[in-house]
Design goal:
Strand content: 25-35%
Bound molecules: benzoic acid
Order of helices and strands: EEHEHEHEHEEEEH
Shape: globular
Distance between the termini: 42 Å
């Protein structure tokens, strides 16, 4: 088993991918996030019921509150291929509040030790469910769910409380 990345450590230099007007793009995460305060949500799968119905959608709804509290960027990463991630982003977030990245090769998951095995659900090796706060490429906060279908410490409301973000009542 690989060693999990810790708070206070720098993100690894591995590429994430996304689609841009039909073109496949890739960039290393250090580069993507080096000058920003970022929330990065890690999800086991696109189009899965918990990720879609209760987890990611709350971050999309609450994105303006996170921005008002000083976050430059909200992003999510999932181990599907970039085309599937792009299709999911169009369904989930037509306003484009979040950035959606593919870790289809699991380079990010393996480099951070944030993978898990869910073969019984036909997800094979996938990302754990986690959320991290990144400041200038360093991990400031990392919350990892013990059970992939749980949304507790990775929930938008939980992270908002930790980060002192004021949410609408
Ligand atoms: C989900 O609904 O998000 C989910 C389902 C099975 C495994 C992991 C995640």
């Amino acid at each position: 088993m690989s060693i999990q990345i810790q708070t206070g450590e720098r993100l690894p230099q591995v590429d994430l991918a996304w689609m841009d007007a039909g073109h496949l793009r890739r960039r290393d995460v250090q580069d993507l996030f080096h000058d920003k305060r970022v929330i990065l949500l890690g999800l086991p799968g696109a189009f899965t019921p918990v990720c879609t119905g209760t987890h990611l959608n709350r971050y999309i709804e609450l994105a303006p509150s996170f921005h008002r509290s000083g976050f430059d960027l909200l992003a999510c990463v999932t181990p599907e291929n970039p085309w599937a991630v792009d299709a999911w982003s169009r369904v989930m977030d037509p306003q484009g509040r979040l950035q959606f990245y593919s870790d289809g090769n699991l380079d990010f998951g393996r480099a951070t030790g944030l993978t898990t095995r869910l073969p019984e659900l036909f997800l094979g090796t996938c990302l754990q469910r986690f959320v991290m706060i990144i400041r200038r490429g360093m991990i400031e906060q990392l919350n990892i769910e013990r059970v992939a279908t749980d949304v507790t410490c990775s929930a938008a409301e939980y992270l908002a409380r930790q980060a002192g973000v004021v949410l609408p009542i």
